[in-house]
Each structure stands twice: as C-alpha cells, then as structure tokens.
Amino acid sequence: MKIIIAGAGEVGSHLAKMLSNESNEITVIDSEKERLDLLAENTDIIKVEGNPSSIEILKEAGADHADLFIAVSPSESQDVNIVSAMLAKKMGSKKATARVNNEEYLSYENKYLFTEMGIDLLFYPEKIAAAEIVGLLKRSASTESIDFARGKLQMAVFKLEEDSPIIDKKLSDFVNVASSDALPFRVVAISRGNETIIPRVDTKFKYHDLVFIISKREGMETLMQYIGKSNVEVNKLMILGGGPIGEMVAKQVCKQVDSIKIIERKKERCFELNERLGGNVIVVNGDGRNSDMLMEESIREYDAFVAVTSSTETNILACVAAKRLGVSRTIAEVENIEYIKLAENMGVDAVINKKLITAGRIFKFTLSDKVHFVKYMSGTNAEILEFVVAPGSWITKGKLKDLGFPQNAIIGGIIRGNESFIAVGDSEIEAYDRVAVFALPEAVKDVDKFFR
Prior knowledge:
4 domains, alpha/beta, six-stranded parallel β-sheet, 22 strands, Rossmann fold, Alpha-Beta Plaits
C-alpha cells in the first residue's frame, strides 16, 4: 500500500515505524526538517518537507494516488489535520483519516458531516485513552480488557503475582482444574519479559507473566479466582493531572463513585476544572510528584490512583509511590513505549499508551474490510483482531485444526448470532461469524487472507 502520514510527531512517527514493517510504501510530510531527518534515521520513509495543508505539497507526496492518508500533525489546532485529510481525499486518496482534539467533532451528527466531506475516520487519542481507563477501573483485576460483540466474549490480561495458585503449573493442569466448573475459556498468549508465547499444553506459568485469556462473560469472575485475582471496588478515585484525559475520566466516572480528587499543577487549569466538573469532584492545586503532598491529600483513603500528566516519568513514579502508600489500583499513562515494561516491573497495575491505541484504529485500514477492529496490547507486541467471516472464505472450509492456520496466531472465540463459544481444534467457522484472533505482527497479513 502507498500510505501518506502528515505529521512526524510522536503518533505519526510511531505509525510510520509500525506500518513500514508491513511492506508498505510510507511517505511522511512535516514542516520541520529536523523531525523528518530523525525519523528517517531508523525508518524506511520518503520525506516531504512542507505544510500538509498545501496542495502543492500534497501533490509532491502523491496524495492523488495514495491508498491511505493519515493526518496526525502535532499541532494544537486540529484544523491542519482536517483540511489536509479533506484535500487528500478530494485529490484521489482512497481513504483519509484525521486526528482531532475536540469532542464536539465526534458526535454522531458531526461525524456524519465529516464523512460527507470525505474523511473516513476521525479519532481523538485522549478520548480513547480516557475510555480505556474507565474500563480498567471497572475491571480492576486485569491490566487490560476487551469486549467482543458487546461482552458476549471477553479478553482479559492478568499479571501473575507471587501468590497466584497457577504459578509453575502447566497449562494442561490449569485447564483440567478449571474444567471442573465447566468454565469455557482459552489462554491465547503469555507475555514473559520481551517474549510473547503462544502457549502449548506443557507451557508452565511463571511469576510476573502476563496471561491473556478469552472467556465467556459469565465465566470470567470464577476464572479470576483460579488465577488468584479479585476486582477492587472503586469508591474513591484520585487523578494526578487535570489535562483532557483526567477531565474526561472524571466526567465519566463521577456518577459511579463517591468522590474524585484531581491534583493539577497549573492554577488557571484548576479554575477551569472547578467550573466544568460535578459536585463530588475536588480539584487541588499542587505538585503530585511529591509523596508528602499525596499524604496530605489522604491518599491512603483512596481505592484507585490514575496518573495522566504529560510526563511519563512522573506518571510512573507517582503510581509507584501511591502503591507503596497502600492504594490498591494504579493506572499510568506511559507515552514512551520502551518504558511500558519498566512501569509494569515497578508495580504499576495497568498502563495506557495513546500511540498504541491510535495505531490499532489506523492499522485496520491496511487490512481487508472484514476486520471489525484491531487493538494493540500494551504488554506485548501482539494484536487482537475481530473478523467478520466472508462467505466462501478459506476459514470456512473445514475444522480449524485442518486449515493450516498461522502458527504465530490463535483463534480464541467465535460469536454466532446471540451465541458465543470458545474455539478448539474441532471448531468449524461459518459465514458471518465474528471471530476473535490473537496474532503476532508477522502473522497478521496471513491471518487476514483466511477471512477474505
């Protein structure tokens, strides 16, 4: 595919690196030569220096014959992204998508308006990140979770602590014990250090493993007991950072908890938050990096702590401090991807990364139209995909065990109408089924072919 990325900031650079590994031709437009040069040092791209909303620059980049145009300029105003995406689509790009930073644009009526103008997808990374955090507060036992078909099937990621009863047990032993309760589930992957393992029956669980499990919704709570996990009921929430993510989390959670406290360094922003947020949200002006300040704000009384400042280091260290002060659940926004494992190893319960969240939304456009969604998991380099099965596709030609499905991928579950079930070797997939797949990057294109 010929892909043009307008903007060589953090999100654009990450997308360029990821998509260049998929045998795509990547062109990157940016007005700052230094950013382009830095990205080109370790990524195979075509550089175009200039304003992405310039018609001449778009022509130079080849927008008239691009398969996908991605506007992610790191400008405080989203106007340049919207204009460049619209122009690229009118010039001939097959698909165009743009990053925005305004919730108003994402309402149903306004999204339709932008579709009429030629933009196939608008995305607001901060809003998506806030929704992820809200989900993690509801399912506090897992480090990450995904719903398929409105929760008929669920995937959850569990970090094994030293008291987990399945440590040093084989997968087959775990399955045999859990099967006594007739629990329908499948362990689809284990992340261990820098390695992602597609487990076999003799694979043993180890301390600090991240275990990826697909289960029916009704079986997840019992399954957690076998792993040694339980959800923490969040009644009091403390948020460090009153930026867009912190504000959106507070808005979404305030009706579900007793109280929320936001700690924000900028006094002007504190006044804004006080005006916008509900009565059970307290806004405090202060530096949450100081553990003494956290103590003064009675952090020991809180059930969960969310750190979403603009500094990755601050978020990690604040969560570590909160954990040591007795908070049961900590969530950090970590924008440096190389710091994700570090944060997890330091005891942060869950990590949010806007670049990974955004990448999944964009990567969907590079696959067939049978992909319902794609999500990158922060604890591994793997991808979760949901496919809608096309009539006559190869995946419908027999039992799963006989189809030669890629080794570095695994089908976890199948949704058929109102029914859902866990996939096994003898399962047969039918047209229009929705199928949940866990795949390592090198297998994604091959997996996609099975569903075309």
